[in-house]
């Protein structure tokens, strides 16, 4: 039987998604100086609730206040504003869709303005020149007590997500964040039970999934975002991803999203800076519009849970072909939904056949500021500004993010005093 984008899907735990289109996670950056959710999240996600997508994934929500992807991240811990989270969840599920909280821990991948000595599996610094504008402090290798504490942080955060009305959680184990760092031999050089062979490198992720499941119960959806490969010589490979997915299948996962790359090797936006190693893109992959479909097919064969792929999908024909091929079960849509917020509804109705590609007219370093500017407008109840130039977006974004860094630092100084 042919699977269509409009078909519902029942997840292993019993939750039902209305269709196969998912609003993928994108970092919003709207939290206040205490890293609590604000009214701007409500405005944005209320709009996306009516987008037609069966599932919305939030952007990076962190489980540790000292390990933020950016200063405006929401943090879920015992100090979080529960009322603000409940309002966020109500707004984002208004149309009856699912809204899952993406939970992460950056490990070493955090600005030194937030944490000058972040935790990581090993004391391996990020391989990026400071001239690119990034500034990371030297990481500290985690003790076993700190590893166990991180597992507990995820379990607590997931329980809070359930209690405040979110309908599931996704653990971010891709893109060079903490789980990804443990999985990679390049960043995990431990010689204890948390490093070495893949079963040890995967231990943090596997034990966290088990702890989260115990915290939220059997009927609450848990997903994982996992690299299909790090696409980095000596890193986590596609063959290892296949083995890991087999182990994850024994833990009652509801959804596996496949991506790839890291800050060092930004394959999630279609770029490669370093040697891609054994998983260098084949000609067949290069010809596809979606970055990770060929790698997903291999993982899908080992998966006991539905598989979702995000990254590069822009045509309805490409989405339908990937779905019908059996390589995946759901399609993630990200940046097009910052330009046309009802993109899933328009796809399902047949109104559009091609999603917008505003990034095609931007230089690489203009893409992030340009889309962040659209985030701001949508969160303020405005329409996207498609006339915004890449240069203007870059001129706006730097001072904007710097102001959020400053507010965060000032708030922490007042609390410490």
Question: How would you characterize this protein structure?
Answer:
The protein has helices at residues 39-49, 82-92, 144-163, 178-183, 198-201, 203-216, 238-248, 283-287, 293-300, 316-325, 343-348, 364-379, 390-416, and strands at 9-10, 16-17, 21-23, 55-57, 61-62, 74-75, 98-104, 119-120, 140-141, 168-173, 222-227, 255-259, 307-310, 330-333. The chain has 417 residues and is an alpha/beta fold. The strands form 3 sheets. Strands 3-4-7-10-11-12-13-14 form an 8-stranded parallel β-barrel, surrounded by 4 helices. Helix 7 crosses helix 9 (293-300). It is globular. The termini are far apart. Residues 267-276 have low confidence and may be disordered.
Brief summary:
The chain is of the alpha/beta class and 417 residues long. The chain contains 13 helices and 14 strands. The protein is globular and about 55 Å long.
- Classification by helices and strands: alpha/beta
Widest beta sheet: strand line-up: 3-4-7-10-11-12-13-14
Largest beta-sheet characterization: 8 strands, parallel, barrel
Low confidence ranges: 267-276
How far the N terminus sits from the C terminus, by CA atoms, comes to 64 Å
Quote the average pLDDT: 90
Number of extended strands: 14
**Computed Rg:** 20 Å
**Helix and strand run:** EEEHEEEHEEEHEHHHEHEHHEHEHHH
**Principal-axes shape call:** globular
Percent of residues in β-strands:
5-15%
* Number of helical segments with 4 or more residues: 13
Helicity, in percent?
Answer: 25-40%
């Amino acid at each position: 039987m042919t699977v269509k984008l409009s078909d519902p899907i029942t997840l292993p735990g019993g939750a039902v998604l209305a269709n196969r289109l998912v609003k993928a996670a994108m970092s919003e950056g709207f939290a206040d100086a205490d890293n609590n959710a604000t009214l701007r999240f409500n405005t944005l996600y209320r709009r996306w609730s009516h987008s037609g997508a069966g599932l919305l994934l939030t952007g990076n929500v962190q489980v540790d206040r000292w390990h933020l992807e950016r200063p405006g991240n929401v943090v879920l811990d015992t100090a979080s504003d529960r009322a603000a989270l409940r309002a966020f969840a109500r707004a984002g599920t208004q149309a009856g869709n699912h809204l899952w909280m993406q939970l992460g821990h950056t490990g070493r991948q955090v600005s030194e303005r937030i944490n000058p000595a972040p935790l990581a599996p090993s004391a391996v610094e990020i391989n990026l020149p400071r001239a690119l504008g990034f500034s990371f402090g030297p990481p500290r290798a985690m003790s076993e007590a700190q590893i166990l504490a991180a597992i507990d942080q995820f379990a607590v955060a997931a329980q809070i997500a359930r209690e405040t009305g979110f309908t599931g959680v996704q653990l971010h184990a891709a893109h060079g964040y903490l789980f990804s760092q443990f999985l990679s031999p390049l960043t995990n050089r431990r010689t204890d039970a948390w490093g070495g062979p893949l079963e040890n490198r995967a231990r943090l992720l596997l034990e966290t999934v088990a702890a989260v499941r115990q915290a939220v119960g059997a009927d609450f959806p848990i997903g994982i975002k996992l690299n299909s490969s790090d696409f980095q010589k000596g890193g986590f490979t596609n063959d290892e991803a296949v083995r890991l997915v087999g182990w994850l299948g024994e833990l009652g996962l509801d959804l596996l999203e496949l991506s790839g790359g890291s800050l060092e090797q930004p394959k999630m936006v279609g770029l490669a800076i370093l040697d891609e190693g054994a998983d260098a893109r084949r000609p067949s992959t290069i010809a596809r519009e979606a970055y990770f479909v060929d790698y997903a097919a291999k993982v899908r064969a080992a998966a006991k849970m539905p598989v979702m792929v995000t990254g590069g999908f822009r045509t309805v024909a490409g989405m339908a072909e990937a779905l019908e091929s059996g390589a995946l079960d759901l399609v993630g849509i990200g940046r097009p939904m910052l330009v046309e917020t009802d993109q899933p509804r328009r796809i399902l109705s047949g109104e559009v056949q091609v999603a917008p590609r505003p990034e095609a007219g931007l230089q690489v370093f203009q893409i992030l500021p340009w889309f962040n500017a659209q985030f701001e407008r949508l969160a303020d109840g405005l329409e996207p500004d498609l006339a915004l130039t890449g240069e203007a977006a870059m001129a706006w974004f730097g001072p904007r993010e710097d102001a959020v860094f400053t507010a965060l630092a000032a708030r922490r100084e007042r609390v410490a005093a």
